[in-house]
Amino acid sequence: MSERSRYLPRRTCLSIPGSSPKMLAKGPSLGADMVFLDLEDSVAPLEKEAARANVVSAINDNDWGDTVLCVRINAWDTKWTYQDVIHIVEQSGERLDELMLPKVQRASEVVALDLLLTQIEANTGRSRVGIEAQIETTMGLINVEEICAASPRLETIIFGPADFAASMEMPVLTGGVQIPEYPGDHFHYVFSKILMAGRAYGLQVIDGPFLKIRELDALRDYSMRTRILGYDGKWALHPDQVKVINEVFTPTQEQFDKALAILDAYKQATETDRKGAVMFGDEMIDEASRKMAVKFVTRGERAGMTRGTEG
Ligand code: GLV
Ligand code: MG
User: Fold this and answer.
1) In the 8-state DSSP scheme, what is residue 272?
2) Which of 232, 248, 264 is the last residue of a domain?
């Protein structure tokens, strides 16, 4: 893992095509916690090689502040992967936090990237580069547990709904949106499976893109599904999506204050009164409540929240 970015927030993960110097220049100012400069599917095959140079310049020349900075390379089933890795990692400065590997099907693909990175780091002396892995094929989902365990460099596991719908051969023409004809949530199993695997191995878990970029209310509604399940964040494909997703993945002030109050009450109960469970208002709280509260507080603090005045 990259020491800098492992625990940084990733409420919003903004995709920027590596073929667009104009969009790459705007990247740092769009309010996303994490930005990935894309060499994969938002870049046409004929632009792949030129995009590498654009991406290196954007990493080295822009001021990225605290943003988690990632490059999505091409998948191992293309001809571009090894040159993407060598070009980007050898030529980028320390500000590059991690690489994203798309369409991961087996743990060995993560191991191969880990080995290549290890050699580049040994040769250049640069600091460790983290890995984000995308699960977006049926084979990737079948192997998700082994994939999450494949390398200590892994920082996140990401669901890619568009490619996943294609891999499943679902009869839809837009991936990553609600299917009104389906009685329920067609991705519920997938969301839960990836979340459990990611959490079991201590990874951040991220939901992929919502492709109807002008439908911000529908985006808010759809993002709540993975937010409620426990995901850490979601992709944005357009700057307009960033604000909505940041809001969805940040606790409300009420939740944040309640979580702080639970931690105070639990500390008092266990450390002063020597009790494991105690009443908090009209509910009983215990160690599980503390764990849930810590998550809200950590997320809120990452978003810059402080205790409300009434707290
Ligand atoms: C993202 O890469 C997706 O395929 O949804
Ligand atoms: Mg994809």
Assistant:
1) I
2) 248
| Residue 236 and residue 263 in one domain | no
- Both 154 and 194 in one domain: the answer is yes
| Ligand 1 pocket: which of 42, 163, 168 to mutate (most atoms within 8 A of CB) | 163
Q: Nearest-CA neighbor of 303 among 239, 249, 254, 260? A: 249
**H or E element in which residue 217 lies:** helix 216-229
Model pLDDT, residue 311:
44
Which pLDDT belongs to residue 309?
56
**Residue pointed to by tokens 């590498």:** 52
Domain identity same for 225 and 272: no
At 112-121, the pLDDT tens digits run 999 999 999 9
DSSP annotation of 149: T
Total domains present in the chain: 2
To the question of pTM greater than 0.90 for the whole model, the response is yes
**Domain limits for position 270:** 253-302
Predicted confidence at residue 299, as pLDDT, reads 83
Distance 6 CA to ligand 1 centre (A): 22
